[in-house]
C-alpha cells in the first residue's frame, strides 16, 4: 500500500478582510525569530507570506506528528534546508508564490514542492534552465500552452532540487524530466533517479504546482486552510496535552 503525502495550502487573498488583525493573531503563536523575519519585510504581502509560511509548517508538524506547538523546533542543514529537529521521520517542504503558500509533508523520505504563478515564459530563462530536449519540447508547444508548459517544467525540476536538499545549487539545466512507466522521473548525470518521482498536482488554474517524493508515496488531495481554520488549528496545537 502506498503512503500518502499531504499538501497543505493557504491562499492569502482569503485574508483581505481584517488581514492585519488576523496576522497579529497568527504571530501570537509564533516564536520571536519568526516575528523578526516578518518585520524585516517592507512589503505587507511579503510579511504575510513569512507569517503564514511559518504558521503553516508548524501546524503541519503538529497534525502529522502529534506534537504540541511549544515542542516544534526547526533547524537547517548545510544547504539551508529546514528540518524538524528531533523528528527524523518527518519530511516537509514549503513553497510560496504570489497568493499561495503551500507545504508538503510525508513520512516515506525526502519531499520537495514548488508552486509558481503562470506568467510570461522568457526564452533566456528557458535556455538557462532546460536541457536541449526540453527546449525543443517547449518550443513545439502551441502559443497558448507555452507559458503553462514552461512553469510546469520549472516546478517539476525545482521540486526535485528541493527534495534532494540542494536547491538551485544543483543546476536545473543538469536535470531532465522524462515521462516514465512509473510517472515523471528525473535524469541526473546520465541516470534516472531510482528513488524519487514527480507529480504535477491539479491546483489553481493560474498556477503550477509540482511535488517530488519517494516512489512508494503519492500526493493526496490538497488540503486548504481558511484563515479561521489555520487559527483554530494553531489554537488546538497550542492547547494539545494541556
Automatic annotation (TrEMBL):
Domain 4'-phosphopantetheinyl transferase N-terminal as annotated: residue spans: 21-104
Instruction: Specify the superkingdom.
Output: Bacteria
Q: Which cofactor does it need?
A: Mg(2+)
**Does the keyword section mention Transferase?**
yes
Which key words tag this protein in UniProt? Antibiotic biosynthesis, Magnesium, Metal-binding, Transferase
Q: Name one Pfam family in it.
A: ACPS
Domain 4'-phosphopantetheinyl transferase per the UniProt entry, residue ranges: 110-212
Which protein family is named in the record? Belongs to the P-Pant transferase superfamily. Gsp/Sfp/HetI/AcpT family.
Name this polypeptide is given = 4'-phosphopantetheinyl transferase
Its source organism is: Paenibacillus cookii
Amino acid at each position: 500500500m502506498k503512503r500518502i503525502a499531504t499538501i497543505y495550502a493557504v491562499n492569502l487573498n482569503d485574508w483581505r478582510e481584517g488581514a492585519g488583525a488576523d496576522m497579529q493573531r497568527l504571530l501570537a503563536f509564533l516564536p520571536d525569530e519568526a516575528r523578526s523575519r516578518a518585520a524585516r519585510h517592507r512589503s505587507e504581502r511579503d510579511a504575510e507570506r513569512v507569517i503564514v509560511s511559518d504558521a503553516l509548517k508548524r501546524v503541519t508538524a503538529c497534525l502529522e506528528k502529534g506534537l504540541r506547538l511549544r515542542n516544534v523546533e526547526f533547524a537547517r542543514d548545510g544547504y539551508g534546508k529546514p528540518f524538524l529537529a528531533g523528528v527524523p521521520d518527518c519530511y516537509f517542504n514549503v513553497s510560496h508564490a504570489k497568493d499561495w503558500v503551500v507545504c508538503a509533508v510525508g513520512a516515506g523520505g525526502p519531499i520537495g514542492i514548488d508552486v509558481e504563478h503562470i506568467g510570461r515564459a522568457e526564452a533566456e530563462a528557458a535556455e538557462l534552465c532546460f536541457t536541449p530536449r526540453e527546449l525543443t519540447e517547449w518550443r513545439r508547444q502551441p502559443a497558448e500552452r507555452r507559458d503553462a508548459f514552461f512553469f510546469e517544467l520549472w516546478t517539476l525540476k525545482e521540486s526535485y532540487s528541493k527534495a534532494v536538499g540542494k536547491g538551485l545549487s544543483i543546476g536545473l539545466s543538469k536535470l531532465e524530466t522524462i515521462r516514465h512507466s512509473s510517472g515523471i522521473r528525473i535524469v541526473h548525470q546520465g541516470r534516472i533517479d531510482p528513488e524519487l518521482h514527480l507529480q504535477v498536482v491539479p491546483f489553481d488554474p493560474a498556477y503550477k504546482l509540482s511535488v517530488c517524493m519517494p516512489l512508494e508515496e503519492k500526493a493526496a488531495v490538497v488540503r486548504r486552510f481558511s484563515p479561521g481554520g489555520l487559527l483554530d488549528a494553531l489554537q488546538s496545537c497550542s492547547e494539545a496535552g494541556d
